[in-house]
């Protein structure tokens, strides 16, 4: 099973390593045609305005909408979460507008630009080690969105059907259980395909 990592900007290699630990194969995606070769896609952290601009420039907006529209799973981490959201607080234009969430960028305050913690995530037995870097939070979720984890009452992991998002960077620790969770989503989506 192959899972792509959008390789326009951001933390790509670390995701590929984490995917490898699940037994699936991770591969960088630089051109839209390469989406045909993978069954799931990770949009990594980085800088969401830059990733959004590059996605527009290289045709990924329509291509990823189509990919997700076919039921293939997409996982956005940090900036990847922001580009998947239907709405961004503060009037900035949204990018893919795929997931029914409203996000606030850089939401944890300057003095706490980055921090780590152990998070309970629904569907994973023991707490997950989470690294937050200038992280967004999910301010509002639509009726079909399942909240998977909260930190200080703020939503930081969520799922809507084949879409998964986390505010934090699961690829920056040895803990690959969120990648395993995603790989299981990809596996399940593949086995229901006609
Ligand atoms: N602060 C970044 C943004 O708003 C996201 C940071 C990250 O991906 N680590 O795009």
From TrEMBL:
It catalyses: L-glutamine + H2O = L-glutamate + NH4(+); aldehydo-D-ribose 5-phosphate + D-glyceraldehyde 3-phosphate + L-glutamine = pyridoxal 5'-phosphate + L-glutamate + phosphate + 3 H2O + H(+). SUPFAM superfamilies: Class I glutamine amidotransferase-like. Pathway: Cofactor biosynthesis; pyridoxal 5'-phosphate biosynthesis. GO terms for molecular function: glutaminase activity; pyridoxal 5'-phosphate synthase (glutamine hydrolysing) activity. PROSITE patterns: GATASE_TYPE_1, PDXT_SNO_1, PDXT_SNO_2. Signal peptide: none annotated. Keywords: Glutamine amidotransferase, Hydrolase, Lyase, Pyridoxal phosphate. Belongs to the glutaminase PdxT/SNO family. This is Pyridoxal 5'-phosphate synthase subunit PdxT. It comes from Paenibacillus apii.
């Amino acid at each position: 099973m192959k899972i792509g990592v959008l390789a326009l900007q951001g933390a790509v290699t670390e995701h590929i390593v984490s995917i490898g630990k699940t037994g699936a194969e991770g591969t960088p995606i630089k051109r839209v045609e390469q989406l045909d070769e993978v069954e799931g896609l990770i949009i990594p952290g980085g800088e969401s305005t830059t990733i959004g601009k590059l996605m527009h420039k290289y045709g990924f907006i329509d291509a990823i909408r189509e990919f997700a529209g076919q039921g293939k799973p997409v996982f956005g981490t940090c900036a990847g979460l922001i580009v998947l959201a239907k709405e961004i607080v503060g009037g900035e234009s949204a990018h893919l507008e795929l997931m029914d969430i409203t996000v606030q960028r850089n939401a944890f305050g300057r003095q706490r630009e980055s921090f780590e913690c152990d998070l309970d995530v629904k569907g994973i037995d023991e707490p997950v080690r989470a690294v937050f870097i200038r992280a967004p939070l999910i301010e509002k979720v639509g009726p079909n969105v399942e909240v998977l984890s909260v930190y200080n009452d703020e939503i930081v992991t969520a799922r809507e059907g084949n879409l998964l998002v986390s505010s934090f960077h699961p690829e920056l620790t040895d803990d690959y259980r969120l990648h395993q969770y995603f790989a299981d989503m990809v596996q399940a989506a593949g086995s229901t395909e006609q």
